[in-house]
Design a protein that fits this description.
The complex is a heterotrimer of chains A (about 280), B (about 160) and C (about 130). Chain A has about 280 residues and is α+β, with helices and mostly antiparallel strands. Chain A has 7 helices and 12 strands. Chain A has a domain of about 190 residues: Translation factors (Elongation Factor Tu (Ef-tu), domain 3), CATH 2.40.30.10. In chain A, strand 10 and strand 11 form a beta hairpin. Chain C has a single domain, classed as Ribosomal protein L14/L23 (Ribosomal Protein L14, Beta Barrel). Chain C starts with 6 loop residues before the first strand and ends in a 5-residue tail after the last helix. The relative contact order of chain C is 0.23. The chains are: A alpha+beta (about 280), B alpha+beta (about 160), C mainly beta (about 130).
Chain lengths: ~280, ~160, ~130
């Protein structure tokens, strides 16, 4: 093929890559058909919805968080004499059970377990904990980390002083269930009048939308229904006290859920969270 | 951690759990006790709000702050709890004939001292005396009241002798 | 919690006895005035004018239906201090001021809240017989 008319084109680079791709010199009469150009292999476009690209894009923390139990609220005094309401979280035998790696699962993460469970554990479960070299646990939680530098060796115990006093943390838990709640409680509607002829509808929602136009209730209309009992995060709570020996973490303000709730505490994602793309771009 | 409890063939090893923290005590009560020890090392303030021997609604107290300012008033109620760091005392006084109330956190590091100025011989029947506000049972200017009572006591002592 | 239509006692010698709040100044909508906030008031009840009073107090005397500015110095609603203590008084009270913030009266008859000192109402604090 080298001695053919394509010699000119091939010399100056790829046909599809633009630039001064194909320059023909017309010495003798030539007939070139477009179909005579052989197909070329181009690079596959990046699929943004793939796991690999998502991993680069996702804002993650450099290290996992902790699992804990909410124990109740307390009055907290600072050295200056200021008073805050604070929440006590117990960190009880929180140990690393397993890693998930890019090769095996497509992303990096650390599995933690907390609270020893000494009864009613089936053999399949027992085998997992035996592999990690830790006692069987009641709760297991997974924390994604940015890369392999965030993986903590399996079997390590994480204590409450993992967090520094003064740093900010996010706390995730399941909020208290409120049952079937009306619109005033659930969405903060104003309700109807107490008087002026309102009959037995003082806490109802009122209008649902138009009449003939649109002739239906629009999707997403706020109505009465189950309230609470869903995952809830409070962001940027300050750590007031962290006692590793006693396993006590005190966080300023309120956190979701009742006392004895299973909570996940992690570094403030809005402050310390970064994606691999951010790091690459020097952000 | 390497102590093995049970070894059977083909059954997974069960590792021994970590030693219990705080000797198995509840985390909240452990922390409260620790904090009370920090804020009140001598136990003086805890004794002050003891439900049997401590303050009672009707007593007159004087609270001094670290910056040497003080507040005097009659106790209307004490909010207690089991080893509660949030324990506080509500006191009422009349200053220039205006009723003024303040709820003071007992274990606040800003407090210097709490002094009992006067304990009446007869108490009203309730633990929380919110109902005395703006009635004939209401407090008067507390400092003048204490002086009057002490004067009375002295007189009585003199006449006895 | 001082809203539109709240009645307040006046504790200075400007001549007013009871005033009614007609505007909470520099606050968002549906908000209320606390200790140290400025409000606009209308005088509902005033002391009768007496000939003997002279000096600054006489010049600044207010009458019924006058509209003035005032600073809230006591509230019946409990308010919290940063050290955790909660304070409440038995009445809502204010001190009348002019537009530059100086008190109209020359004397303040009863106790005012301690917060005023931090908010730099120094004149009111120094005139008051006691802070609580």
């Amino acid at each position: 093929m080298n001695n053919s008319i394509w010699a000119v084109g091939r010399k100056s680079g790829s046909l599809f890559m633009g630039g001064n791709g194909l320059v023909f010199t017309r010495n003798v009469a030539q007939i070139t058909s477009i179909h005579a150009i052989p197909s070329m292999r181009s690079e596959a476009p990046v699929i943004n919805h793939s796991l690999e690209v998502s991993n680069l894009r996702k804002s993650l923390l450099g290290r996992p968080g902790l699992l804990g139990i909410k124990r109740g609220m307390i009055t907290w005094f600072t050295e200056k004499g200021e008073q805050f309401a604070a929440t006590v979280i117990e960190i009880d035998s929180c140990e690393v059970i397993k890693h998930k790696t890019l090769e095996s699962d497509g992303y990096w993460s650390v599995l933690l377990g907390q609270v020893d469970k000494l009864k009613n554990v089936n053999e399949k479960e027992l085998a997992k904990f035996a592999a990690a070299g830790v006692s069987p646990k009641q709760n297991i939680g997974e924390f994604r980390v940015r890369d392999e530098s965030g993986l903590i060796p399996v079997g390590t115990e994480l204590k409450a002083d993992y967090f520094a006093v003064g740093q900010l943390v996010d706390v995730k838990a399941v909020s208290k269930g409120k049952g079937f709640a009306g619109v005033m409680k659930r969405h903060g509607f104003a309700g109807l009048n107490a008087s002026h002829g309102v009959s037995k509808a003082h806490r109802s929602a009122g209008g649902m939308g138009g009449n003939q136009d649109p002739g239906r209730v629009l999707p997403g209309k706020k109505m009465a229904g189950r309230m609470g009992g869903n995952n809830c995060t409070v962001y940027n709570n300050e750590v007031l006290h962290a006692d590793g020996e006693a396993g006590i973490l005190v966080v300023k303000g309120q956190i979701p859920g009742p006392a004895r709730a299973f909570v996940r505490v992690l570094d403030a994602t809005k402050l310390y969270g970064k994606s691999l793309n951010d790091i690459k771009n020097g952000m | 951690m390497c102590n093995v409890l049970t070894i059977y063939i083909d059954t997974p090893t069960v590792f021994e759990p970590l030693p219990k923290k705080r000797n198995g005590e509840n985390a909240l009560s452990y922390l409260q006790k620790e904090l009370l020890q920090r804020y009140d090392p001598t136990g003086k303030r805890r004794a002050l709000v003891d439900s049997k021997t401590g303050l009672r609604a009707g007593d007159v107290i004087k609270v001094t702050y670290l910056d040497r300012t003080d507040v005097v008033g009659r106790v209307l109620g004490i909010k207690r709890g089991q080893n509660n760091v949030g324990t506080n005392i509500l006191i009422r006084n009349k200053i220039n004939r205006i009723g003024s109330e303040i709820r003071i956190p007992l274990f606040s590091p800003k407090l210097r001292n709490i002094e009992v100025l006067y304990k009446p011989e007869e108490y009203l029947s309730r633990g929380k005396q919110y109902y005395i506000r703006n009635t004939k049972l209401d407090v008067d200017d507390v400092e003048a009241y204490v002086k009057r009572q002490q004067h009375k006591l002295e007189k009585a002592n003199v006449s006895k002798k | 919690m001082i809203y539109l239509k709240t009645l307040l006692n006046v504790i200075d010698n400007s001549g007013a006895q009871v005033v009614e709040c007609i505007k909470v100044l520099r606050h968002g909508p549906r908000n209320f005035a606390k200790v140290g906030d400025e409000i606009t008031v209308v005088v509902k009840k005033a002391r009768p004018l007496q000939a003997e009073i002279t000096g600054q107090a006489a010049n600044n005397r207010v009458k019924r239906r006058d509209i003035c500015r005032a600073i809230v110095v006591r509230t019946k609603s409990p308010f919290r201090r940063p050290d955790g203590s909660v304070v409440r008084f038995d009445d809502n009270a204010c001190v009348l001021v002019n537009k530059s913030g100086d008190p109209l009266g020359t004397r303040i008859s009863s106790v005012v809240a301690k917060e005023l000192r931090d908010l730099e109402f120094n004149k009111i604090v120094s005139l008051a017989p006691k802070t609580f």
